[in-house]
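Below is how a single chain appears once it has passed through the pipeline. First comes the sequence as given, then the structure the pipeline wrote out for it. We keep one example in the README because the format questions we get most often are answered faster by looking than by reading.
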Amino acid sequence: MHSNDAQMLVLTVLADGPRHGYAINTAIEELTGRRLGPGSLYGALSRLEGRGLIQPANQATGPQERHRTVQITDAGRDQLRAELQQMARISAVGLRALGSNPA
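Resulting structure:
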C-alpha cells in the first residue's frame, strides 16, 4: 500500500471521531478487509501530524504514549474532502469508460 493510500484511510476513519492506533487499524480493516502494517500505520500518523492534518485529542498526552488518541483537524477535513472529490471524479470517468466498452 502506498503511503498516500494509508494516509487517506487514516483520515477517512478519523473523520468519524478520535481514535488511537489500534482502533484506527481496526476501522481500516472493517472498511477495506485489510490491516495496515505497523510501519505503514504509524508512518502515516507521523506524516499526517507533521502536516497538521491530525493532532492529539488530548493535548496533555505525550507524543511517545503508546495508546495516544488522535483526531482530524479542520485542515485534515479539508484535505480529505478535496481528495475524495478528486477520487469521485476519477472513478466516474473510469466507470463511464468501462460501461461504454463492456468486457
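Residues 74-100 form the longest helix (27 residues).

See the next section for the split statistics.
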